[in-house]
Specification:
The protein is of the alpha/beta class and about 450 residues long. About 45% of the residues lie in helices and about 15% in strands. The chain contains 16 helices and eleven strands. Strands 1-7-6-5-4-2-3 form a seven-stranded mixed sheet, with helices on both faces. Helix 4 packs across helix 13.
Length: about 450
């Protein structure tokens, strides 16, 4: 608890002293000793490693999409790891499997709006969830012949989607990137044209992926229109809601993410917008029998592990055979705090993003091109005119502004490139981030941003 209580005062990034960091790295690269050492001394040594890291759980961390790390989830994980029950099959631990299944049904049906009977599996993160989704879509729509199988993703889709497709055996030339309009959303009309043109050329379109909150700007693709297109063209429709999915707990988020309920599969990351520790992802699907069809396998040595009361066998629903029971890290926080606590926290993040957008929009030296769909606000230094030289100067000023902001240990934001322009992003997703720290960040930005246009 001492560490948790210290989070508001801890710096967001570790010391820039490369010698200290280098010494720590070398110390931890050493092999284990022949004889054991004192636990207290080893824990003190670990404290140094913890300090030599970005503070992704603190209120000033507004850079990448982090995991807030609830103490109740860590406590649940300690309990699960200590008791060490097997979670790949229902037979060895039926009650714990039921516990895990309860949170998966809640995610699939209550959060995402999928029909009764939908469920999924907990994974180590969104990348593994997306990989299983692609494999399931490939098996369901292409069966054995998938050399011409073709996937459609947006320009701003997370890179893990393309990586998952490659790992699933889809040729890179058949991973088609659909352009976006000025609002950064996938252009549905162009996607339709690409699908029909590819089919006429002998490709086999089978998977359309929409983003429910991109990493760059938090933008939500037109999910209802993409669902229509997928149904018309008989494609599997996957929604990447790793970042944005749990905003559906709020009224605004449910409106913004309408269309998710029409997906065949959805990636969620409870370690993002449910504030849980890293390593907690989820895949939920409309029809779990298709997960089994894509992943099921067995051996004669497993013949004694009979199914228990219709409970799922997660080892037959994903690539992992040996896995721990993962449900407790999600179940305990939801039951201790209640769903309303998470809903209220997410509503607060949406309000804070609006606050950031409104104040940055009032600074003449900045441009804030897009209204936030969720809790990410993108901005950059405003160019003096429309010429290439002015844009380049503005990009350099944007990089300098990032450096000045992040020199303050109280806050940390990050950058990206959108439409060829250097862009800064404020991502408000830590449950410990409140109005006071956001206002500190805004004061720092206002202090360092150009007063007038770049010259």
């Amino acid at each position: 608890m001492e560490f948790i209580e210290s989070l508001p005062s801890r710096p967001t990034s570790y010391s820039s002293d490369s010698q200290v960091a280098g010494e720590l790295v070398q110390a931890f690269l050493a092999p284990p000793p022949e004889q054991g050492r004192d636990l207290k001394g080893l824990l003190q040594k670990l404290d140094g490693a913890i300090d030599c890291a970005l503070e992704t759980a603190g209120p000033g961390y507004m850079a990448y999409i982090p995991g807030g790390g609830l103490y109740t989830s860590a406590l649940a994980e300690f309990y699960a790891r200590s008791t060490n029950r097997y979670g790949g099959n229902a037979f060895p631990a039926p009650a714990l499997t039921a516990l895990e299944e309860s949170v998966l049904r809640w995610m699939a049906q209550d959060v995402c709006g999928l029909p009764k009977g939908s469920t999924g599996l907990l994974t180590t993160g969104g990348s593994m969830a997306t990989f299983s989704a692609v494999v399931t879509a490939r098996e369901d729509r292409l069966e054995e012949e998938f050399t011409q199988g073709t996937v459609y993703v947006g320009v701003h889709a997370h890179h893990s989607v393309r990586k998952a497709a490659r790992l699933a055996g889809i040729s890179a030339r058949n991973i088609r990137v659909v352009p976006s309009g000025e609002n950064l959303r996938m252009d549905v009309r162009v996607a339709a044209e690409m699908i029909r043109r590819d089919r006429a050329a002998g490709r086999c379109p089978f998977l359309l992926v929409g983003s429910a909150g991109t990493t760059d700007t938090g933008t939500v693709d037109p999910l209802p229109a993409l669902a229509d297109l997928a149904a018309e063209e008989r494609l599997w429709f996957h929604v990447d809601a790793a970042y944005g999915g749990f905003f559906r707990l709020t009224e605004r988020g449910r409106r913004q993410l309408a269309g998710t309920e029409r997906a065949d599969s959805v990636t969620l990351d409870p370690h993002k917008s449910l504030f849980l520790p890293f390593g907690t992802g989820a895949l939920v699907v409309r029809d779990p029998t298709k997960l089994y069809a894509a992943h099921e396998g067995t051996g004669s040595y497993l013949q004694d592990l009979t199914s228990e009361g219709g409970l799922p066998n997660y080892a037959h629903m994903g690539p992992e055979l040996t896995r721990e029971t993962r449900g407790l890290r999600v179940w305990l926080p939801l039951h201790v705090h209640g769903v309303s606590a998470f809903r209220e926290a997410l509503d607060e993040k949406l309000n804070l993003a609006e606050r950031v957008h409104d104040r940055l929009s009032g600074l003449p030296g900045l441009e804030v091109p897009w209204h936030p769909d969720l809790s990410i606000v993108a901005f950059r230094v405003r160019p003096r005119d429309s010429g290439a030289a002015a844009a380049e100067a503005a990009d350099e000023a944007t990089r300098e502004l990032l450096m000045k902001i992040n020199n303050d240990p109280r806050v940390l934001i990050s950058s990206t490139v959108v439409d060829g322009r250097q862009t800064l992003r404020v991502c408000i997703i830590i449950h410990r981030t409140h109005e006071d720290r956001v206002d500190e960040l805004l004061d720092i930005i206002e202090e360092h941003c150009p007063v007038t246009d770049v010259k």
